[in-house]
Design brief:
Order of helices and strands: HEEEEHHHHHHHHHHH
Number of strands: 4
Number of helices: 12
Shape: elongated
Helix content: 55-70%
Length: 259
C-alpha cells in the first residue's frame, strides 16, 4: 500500500518515467487540476507520511507497486527510507526485479561481501547504484579500483561502503586524474595508502579546489606531505585560509630560527 502511495505521489509531481524493462504501463487514474496545497498527508497502516507537494498537474499514474513492495522487503526498508530512496531515484519502479534489481543486489553482496544490513545501507546512500550496469560499470570499476589502489577484497569493500558514490565516478575523467594528482604531490607510496584510508579525497574537484590550493602551497613554500594534501582537499574555504596562514607563520618562524 505504501509503495502505491509513493508511486502516486511522484506521478503527481511530474516525475519523468522511462521504461527500463518490458513491463507495460497501466493507466490507473487521472487527476484533474486541484487547488494548490502545501502538503499531501497520507495515512497508511497507522503511519503518517508527509510529502511536500508542488503544483498538481494531469499525469498518468503507473501501477508498478510490486517493484517498490519487493524492494522494501528485500532491503528491509522502513516506510520513511523507502520514500527517501524513491525521491532520490524516482525511476526505480520501472526496473525489472528479475532482470535488473535482484541480480544487481546479488552482485553487490557477493562481490563486496555485504550482509543484508550493509547492502541496505549502501543502497540507501547511493540509490542510483540500482541503475548502474554490472557489465559496463560495476564489475570493471571494482576491478580497476582494487588494482589501482592495491586493495585486498576486504579493504575494497570497506572503501566502497565508506564512499558508495565512488561507483558512479568516471575512471578516465575523474578517478585516475585525481589519484595521479596526489601521486605527483607526495609520491605513489604515500598517496595510495592515504586514499585507501580516506576515499573521500577522490571526491574533490581538481580544477576548482585541488590545483588552486596546490599553487598556494607551492607559492608559500609549504612542504607537501599527506597532511597537506588532506587539508587541501577537505578543509572549507574559511578553514583553509586559516590553515594556510598558520602554515606560513610556522614556516617563517622556522626560517628565522635556522638563521
Amino acid at each position: 500500500m505504501l509503495a502505491f502511495l509513493v508511486q502516486t505521489l511522484f506521478a503527481l509531481q511530474g516525475t519523468t518515467k522511462r521504461s527500463v524493462s518490458d513491463s507495460s504501463y497501466h493507466h490507473v487514474s487521472r487527476v484533474h487540476h486541484l487547488p494548490s496545497t502545501p502538503f499531501i498527508v497520507i495515512r497508511t497502516q497507522q503511519r503518517d507520511a508527509l510529502f511536500a507537494s508542488p503544483k498538481l498537474q494531469d499525469e498518468r499514474i503507473i501501477d508498478q507497486t510490486e517493484t517498490l513492495d519487493w524492494l522494501q522487503e528485500r532491503l528491509g526498508l522502513t516506510d520513511e527510507h523507502l520514500i527517501q530512496l524513491v525521491k532520490r531515484f524516482p525511476t526505480v519502479h520501472n526496473y525489472s526485479i528479475e532482470d535488473n534489481l535482484e541480480p544487481k543486489l546479488v552482485w553487490l553482496q557477493d562481490r563486496l561481501s555485504l550482509d543484508d544490513k550493509s547492502l541496505s545501507k549502501l543502497v540507501g546512500k547511493l540509490p542510483a547504484v540500482l541503475g548502474y550496469s554490472i557489465e559496463d560499470n560495476l564489475d570493471p570499476k571494482r576491478t580497476w579500483l582494487q588494482e589501482r589502489l592495491e586493495l585486498e577484497s576486504k579493504s575494497l569493500s570497506k572503501l566502497v561502503q565508506a564512499m558508495p558514490s565512488i561507483l558512479g565516478y568516471n575512471v578516465k575523467g575523474n578517478l585516475e586524474p585525481t589519484i595521479q594528482f596526489y601521486e605527483d604531490c607526495v609520491g605513489s607510496n604515500a598517496a595510495i595508502p592515504t586514499i585507501a584510508k580516506d576515499p573521500s579525497l577522490l571526491g574533490y574537484s581538481l580544477e576548482n579546489r585541488l590545483k588552486p590550493r596546490l599553487a598556494q602551497v607551492q607559492e608559500a613554500g609549504i612542504p607537501l606531505d599527506t597532511g597537506t594534501i588532506t587539508r587541501m582537499a577537505k578543509l572549507t574555504e574559511e578553514r583553509w585560509s586559516i590553515s594556510l596562514a598558520s602554515q606560513k607563520t610556522k614556516l617563517l618562524k622556522q626560517q628565522l630560527q635556522d638563521r
